[in-house]
Structure formats: C-alpha cells, structure tokens
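Journal club side-thread
Mid-discussion, someone asked how the predicted structure for our own chain would compare to the paper's figures. Pasting it here so we can look after the session.
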Amino acid sequence: MTGPSPLTPIRILLAALATAGVSATATAQQPAAQPPAAKVAPAAKVAPASVKPLRGFKIRVASQASGEERNQQTDLWVLEVRFKPLRLIRIGLTDPKTGKKSRQLVWYLLYRAVNRPLPSKGDPNGVDPQNQFDAVRGKPLFAPEFTLVTNDNDGQRIYSDNILPEAQAAIAIRERLPQLKNSVQVVGPIPDATPYAAKQDISPVYGVVTWVGVDPRTDFATIYMSGFSNGYRYVRGPVPFTTLTQALAEGRVRRATAVWNGITTQNWTNIHDLLETSKTNAVKKQAIEAGNWFYVVKPDAAGPPASSILWRKTLVQRYWRPGDAVEQDEAEFFMQGPNDEVFEPRWVYRPEAPAITAKPAPAPAPVPVPKTTSADSPRPARN
C-alpha cells in the first residue's frame, strides 16, 4: 500500500524549483547575483571525492524497518544516512535587503545518503512497489527537510534550515567536498539503488544543512531529519490501555497493531507484546495499564481513517553542549548528555503537525565576537 505524497506544500514548491533548474537564489533570503553553484570551490582546491568518500562521515544510520512497517507499506524505502558531527563556522554573510556583509556564526551539518533498499522475500536487493489503489507515478522524490529544536533556557525554540550560498561555498572548501548540495539543490528523484553485494555505492548524495541565529546559550539541541524515508502511518490517541483492550475484544484492532506510549526514549511495540509482558511482570503491567497509548490504524481506498493524524518516519539526533555565549566551539557538541546518557541517532515516527506548538525562535541578543585575522578563511575541519 502506498501512502500520501511525502511532500508538504513547501517541499512541493522546492521540488518544482529544482526541477525547473532554479538554483538556491529562488529563496528570498539570497541575493540574485550569488547563485550557490557559482560559490562552490573549484576542483583544483578540493580533493576529489573519490579519494576518501567516507572521510569523516563516521555516524551511520542503517536503512532499516520492522516487519510491521513493511507489511503496512509495501512500497516503503529508507535511505542509509551518514553524517559528520555538528559544526560551526564564522563567515561573512550578505544581507539581501541592505547588501551589507556581516560576520555571523553558522551551525551546519554534513550528510551522505545512499539508497540501500530493504530486502524482501525472493529479492535480496530491494522491494518492488505494489500500490493497491493507484498507479505508481514515476520515481519517488527525495526532498529532505531539517529542523533544529532547542529545549532549554526559557523554553522550546524551532529553527528551519537556511539557504546560505556564501556559507555553503566556505564549507565546501573547508570540508573538501565540492559536490555539497543545499536543501533546495538536493531535491530530485531518490538515488539509484545500491545492491548489498556492490563494492561501491551508487549515486551517493552529499548535502549540507545550515542554520543562523541559534541562541548561543543553547545547551540541548535536537535535529529532526525527514524525507530520508517515505515511511508513514496514520495514528490515533493517546488513549487508556483499557480502550485498546476493548477495541481488541471488539475486533477493531489486532494483537499485531503497533502502539507507543509517547515516551521518546522508548520504541513502538504491539498489543500482543504488551499483553504477554503483563502476564509475567507485575511492575511493567502496572506501568502499561497506567499509560496512555497511541495506536496505528490502516487507511483504505476511501482515504485516511477518521480522527487519525499522519505521522512520518523521521531521523532524530540529539546533542548536548555547555552553552557559552562568548566562546562557542564546535568541539563542545557532544552526542552524550551531562549524565552520561548516550544520544544515538534513531528512526522515529513524528506527527505531520507537531503536537507541541512552539513560538518562533527570536533573534538572540548580540554577543561579543572574537576578532580573527581572516574572516573568510576558516580553519580546517576535523574529520
């Protein structure tokens, strides 16, 4: 069963711009005289990508899905994603309104995506789409979206990624990756599939995501990365556990129905496992019965189930840094919390419309900027 289009209205617009060959200058923030393509470093100054294609991309998130996901969505695809640690760069950025340039601190994330298909019975290299309701309309579209969320100080703040050609050019030089694409340039068909037996990845995508104006006092940050999978599910809830058991008795849900208790550190499970756990563990039984649960409902040819919300498969990575408004250093981004909790990247399902409404991130208060001898010559990146 195929799902709805993986594009929000904004992503549909980006896809249309990319298809028409419009560069990142279509973004209102960018000056027309500086298209991203013109800013990427010349090949003579950058090591060829073929020398060390995985140089520094140490964090790997495998292409994976549960049996329940693959049974629910037969055309499911999930890309393998590698990325480097979150980094900082100070660069002179031109204000598109005034034309004046000022030095700003840019947060950025580099990623590498490969289409490594999910195995299926009889075909170890991938899954053939089988749409039960509509004809398949061409190759799926790759249109990733990135959201940076901070959760400390005076509340939650949300930052969408910025298209910054000047920063992109400097980052490409620093990282020795001339093929870097921003979130507009990268929009297009998903990469060709790389079989598991292949000795070299086919058509890997190298991308960069940038943010400016992030509160320098930030201690905890989470990056949500959607568009690396077309995974989706329609979800109802939360409801008491007794509601689930009653629905099971009436045949409105199955024992295999996927459920989740809303705790971000815990994964989705199913009703069967909850019932079996309740038989053998009194403490967990009490927690299960006291919890409120989200549960998956299947759509049909008539459309989405009533009273359900669309959730999408999303990659999540958390970070901790000791907030320092004056001496910000990329070496202080940790994938481990202050109490030694490990922040590993995870595939999760996230509501299309966030359950928490957060106020837009205001511009941070001015902070002292250390002087440097060369504004546009950043130090070499750590691999």
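Post-session note: Confidence is low (pLDDT under 50) at residues 17-51, 121-129, 354-377.
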